[in-house]
Write a structure and sequence with these properties.
By secondary structure, this protein is of the alpha/beta class. The chain has 2 domains: 205 residues, no CATH class; 177 residues, no CATH class. Helix content is 30%, strand content 18%. The protein is built from 12 helices and 12 strands. It has a 10-stranded mixed β-sheet, with helices on both faces. Strand 2 and strand 3 form a beta hairpin.
Amino acid sequence: MIPPIKSLEGNLGIRLFVGLFLFSILNGAEPADTNYLEEKVPKYRLPKLLKSDLKRAETVTEWYEKRRPELQTLLETHIYGKTPTRDLGPFQTRIIDIDPQALNGRATRKQISITIDDKLQLSIDLLVYLPNQAEEQVPCFMGLNFYGNQTVHADPKIRINPRWMAGKSEIGIKNNRATEATRGVYHERWQIERLIKRGYAVATAYCGDIDPDNYQHDFSDGIHPLFYRDNQSKPDPGEWGTIGAWAWGLSRILDYIIESESAINAKQVAVIGHSRLGKTALWAGAQDQRFGLVISNNSGCGGAALYRREFGERIHHMIKPVGYWFCGNHANFSHREQELPADQHMLLALVAPRPLYVASATEDQWADPKGEFLAALAASPVYELLGKTGLPSPQIPEPNTPVQGTIGYHLRNGAHAVTAYDWEQYLSFADRHFKR
């Protein structure tokens, strides 16, 4: 039995009030049936991770050839949808800007346009920073951002993304477009200069370049139409949603890095994401085994957290506002999490044997920190099968006391965010696995 998160016990009322207040401000009225009490978590049994129709325990070969594909199919069928296999490439790439003296001479900044489709005017605007002092190929952190590359750093030369964006006037979004006021507003989420100083490259792109995060999404824009059959106007129930599209985009950015960025060690690319982009990073890392390390920051329901706990956000909470993130089949399990043939320990297990980091925050109960920890713990047997240590602690750690095996986990004091503390743990974890 995993003990409760101690930091949440003494000040539970205060922490939940703050968390619920923030949720209310950011997302409107909280769903009336949201559960934040451990005693109301139903008894559940996770689907077995290593069970298949084999008559004996899996070997490493059987994991890769049989059970791993079975788990990926379950996740595709019931949660994220199947990603099309049609190859649209090779894509045309063009360097829009390069500055070898960026960040006061400490980095080279590159801005690259990756054309996906001229007719639909689809392209990914990729921002890359490379440390100038490196004497050999460097590892890289890669991830999508929410409101354009100009938000990740105050560098005045970063191009302001011109595409549609969800309204957020408090950061400078006007008429669903970014303005100069958005420059650098999320610099704390990215810590560009810290990463450069530690010898890492950074690559990021706006998620809306791939597929817009539009609550009225009808799949008529973004990349989905490129894969439609004749007379098809939206994905079939088992086909990918927006998270699948974003994950596809991350793999296309990795293609570019492998083919064109010789300064980056392509075997040491860590894919990272926060919140719904944390869900995306996990799905990208699960499908594309070329990513060398996978990081989920506060990804919650549909990310690292176990569905069957029915704690915080649940499937039916997501379906009405953001059901387009997932495949159509996912809605079949609204209020029926116990019947879902998959759960998120399976998603995390697909990252094995590569390093995986899951991070939670004490005030982010909507994302179910305990459920994120338990999923990481439940994925550990696959790491052990493949000769790795998995999560080194069977008990959830105290806040701000990370545990790191091949799976890492920490519970940070604070709210739903990416902070300097989070990045310090990710850098330490990446150093351990990339710089041995």
